[in-house]
Amino acid sequence: MQMLKKITLVCGLLIASPTVVLADVMEYQFENGLKLIVKPDHRAPVAVTQVWYKVGSSYEYNGITGISHQLEHMMFKGTENLGPNEFSKIIAANGGRENAFTGRDYTAYFQTMEADRVEVSFRLEAERMRKLVIDEAELLKEREVVAEERRMRTEDNPTSLTREAFNAAAFMNSPYHHPVVGWMSDINNYEADDLRDWYQKWYAPNNATIVVVGDVEPEAIHQLAKKYFSDLKPEVTEIVKPQVEVPQLGKRQIQVQAPAELPYLMMGWKVPVVTTAEIAWEPYALEMLAGILDGGASARFSRDLVRGQEVAANLGAGYGLFSRLDDLFLVAGTPTKAHSIADLQQAVMTQLETLKTEAVSQQELERIKTQVVANAVYERDSVFYQAMQIGMLETVGLDWRLSDDYVKNIQAVTAEQVQAVAKKYFIDKTLTVAELVPQTLDGQPRRQATAGGRHGH
Amino acid sequence: MVTRIILGFIGLLLTFNVNAGPKIEHWKTSNGARVYYVSAPELPMLDLKVVFDAGSAQDQDLPGTALLTNAMLSEGAGGQSADQIATAFEDIGANFGNSSQRDMAQVSLRSLTAEPALSKALAMIETVLTKPDFPQDAFERLQKQVLLGLQAEKQSPSALASRAFYSNLYGDHPYASMPAGTTEVVTQLNTKTLNKFYKQYYVARNATVVLVGAIDQAKAKAIAEQLMAELPQGDMVNPLKSVSALTQAKQIDIAHPSQQTHIMMGQPGISRDDPDYFTLYVGNHILGGSGLVSQLSNEIREKRGLSYSTYSYFRPMHQQGPYQFGLQTRNDQAQQALEVMQATLQAFIINGPSDAELTAAKQNITGGFALRVDSNSKIADYLAMIGFYGLPLDYLETFKGKVSNVTVAQIKDAFARRVHPDKMITVMVGDKGE
């Protein structure tokens, strides 16, 4: 069956018909709970291997925030059979590129290599799935590396500082309250046993999904996975507590005073996502709405606020419909010199008011739908992105097949639905606003108020 | 088993040869634009780039001109407004982009090849390329945005370091200024200046056209002709003057209220046609170009935990682009980190890499060659580079061989001749707490 489809695809190409044929994605479930998903893509002789674990900053609690990210760093620092950094050296010697990333809902590791090297990835990933060694001295050094990472990304970046304070204000008890990298005082106080416990608890085949996309044959990859992963012992993973965000009972406004040149505005409203929505079409209507506001240079924010009124120097709308917990619909940007943060905020509110009172035009709806269809083609230019989509959906508790349904679900969105979600969710009661208030940049040291409290040094 | 063999055949049909890289076709349009094309029939899309030798290196006394000229193209053309242009591209799902660095100024398009989308996208980009209007109101808006961007640089230690680094590295060479220009100059620019710049540099003989996608060669030829037809033939720009070597070490300290000090260190490096290119590239790969397994990362991050990121790279350009080293670390350990970086470089110049290190580097570069050309967008980037810098068409085919031929002795020799730690620029941006 599979073979037949493949041959059809080749015939199509021989007569130069540019039809996109959906690849045959294969899914395999192992007895120890491990899931393997293989998507063949024969355009180039390469393959990406990604190992996704269902753990990230939203699984953490106060005192150990950022520990998933610290553990991600330690995953390169040695196992029972590999010395520190040896993992990376072996991948490099095989012509590979590798790294890892941690998010709120996932931690993922990846290697891209020529397609006949998938076994190298599997051998090493199987080793560090159950045999990591957390060495005290290595941890102390790597804590410093993570602290430097945090200084670079957050402490010395005023918009990042604002975003962090914004999230902490918007989410009261949801774990989306704290940053993925963790608070500095938590970073400075991880103990080796904290890392060991976290590893033991979450790094097991029954909490992992392996995704391989590239010039591979699924059954061969299945056999390789069997060889390296099927003997690994599953773990009794904890059921993560729901930590459902308490209802927001009124608008929250905060300021961040930090050395900066330009002001910055962030606004966010509480909204459902695909995993939590009671009404299935709502997340797709919100996604459409984000496109109407910010889906390119022809969208309303660019057309009306950056160009027309020239109130924004830049302005974006953000909504991710595939997270594990309820999230925010975000609007963030910088006013032009001639305008204040208040002007920008007012202009955004007026835009949202228009969405509530007037149906969006058919042309706008069609434009976003056309973009979504086109992007589904463009995304196939990257094996990495294709694997990423599959892994992320699986790890937030959804089915990877949803990425195929995404286009269909967006195409079904109506103007009435966009108006309905605008009315329902853009309300002051669940709004959080953060404003970056620039402080002088005269080269003098920061005042205690902005930096002192968080540091162990 | 049978299945796998058949799939293997299919793989060969569908994929580029691992060693040879994609098959590049090259020709010139009737008015002299250089065209580079790779057929990629698998996905129904086209990537198109038009690259002009019209980056900030051509700014002369008015830094910021090239960038604003490039940014203005889509702000009004052929009588159509910025709104109309953006809508024309986005109604059909096409992505338009423009950008301008020191050497290159480019416009790019990604579109579906289905009709009428492709014809509409091409018609619009042709208008943008050949009939920009430089409307006054749009110019004033972009000018304000660039000025705001220049102000924002002052809150970023890495942007501050970068500006000081280039300025001190290049002195009176055109590479000294930043593409975004300066507040003083951008304030004075006007549409007349931009229009003049456009007329001089956005001409066929100064253009490289890149096409990668599901179109045949006849179609690629027609598209390239169509895009260039309305541009005057013009002339290629004159070669830039060469870069003067630094004569002495210099350290620039910039006080900034940050928790980290950003360090940038370096000297003029190599041009795209430098005979030492592959030797220095492979040598630097070992020293600081291979991420977590480089010597710098090993000394600074792995052994001492001093920085999240540390690197060194050559950025080959028309003339000598920078050879740049960098890291960021907590203010109180900046001096220590700088010393480790300098010592690592010194040791490399004296000792060179070990045989094992060179073998590992070659395995990494050649064993991962296919990754460099595994997508249409990466192939398009390579074509732009090959075309713009006039590299040989077999650049990708011979890449692995040239890397494999590099020896330890060649690396030691090239680093001794070309890299001078005693004459480097060092920029440190941070809070010294004095």
Task: Describe, in plain words, how this protein is organized in 3D.
The complex is a heterodimer of chains A (457) and B (434). Chain A is of the alpha+beta class. Chain A has 17 helices and eleven strands. In chain A, helix 2 packs across helix 8 (192-202) and helix 4 (118-130) packs parallel to helix 9 (218-229). Mean pLDDT of chain A is 92; it is low at 1-21 and 445-457. Chain B has 434 residues and is of the alpha+beta class. Chain B has helices at residues 2-14, 65-72, 82-91, 117-130, 136-153, 157-170, 183-188, 191-201, 217-229, 277-289, 295-302, 334-351, 355-367, 369-372, 376-388, 395-404, 408-418; strands spanning 25-28, 34-39, 45-52, 76-77, 80-81, 95-100, 105-112, 207-213, 250-255, 260-268, 310-314, 322-330, 425-430. In chain B, strand 4 (76-77) and strand 5 (80-81) form a beta hairpin. The longest helix of chain B is centred in the N-terminal third of the chain and has 18 residues, at 136-153. The interface between A and B is large, with 91 and 91 residues.
Question: Largest sheet of chain B, if any?
Answer: 6 strands, mixed
Number of extended strands of chain A: 11
Order of helices and strands of chain B: HEEEHEEHEEHHHHHEHEEHHEEHHHHHHE
Instruction: Supply the helix-strand structural class of chain A.
Output: alpha+beta
Residue windows where pLDDT falls under 50 for at least 5 positions of chain A? 1-21, 445-457
Largest sheet of chain A: 6 strands, mixed
Task: Identify the notable features of this structure and list them briefly.
heterodimer, A: 457 residues, alpha+beta, 17 helices, disordered C terminus, B: 434 residues, 6-stranded mixed β-sheet, 18% strand, disordered N terminus
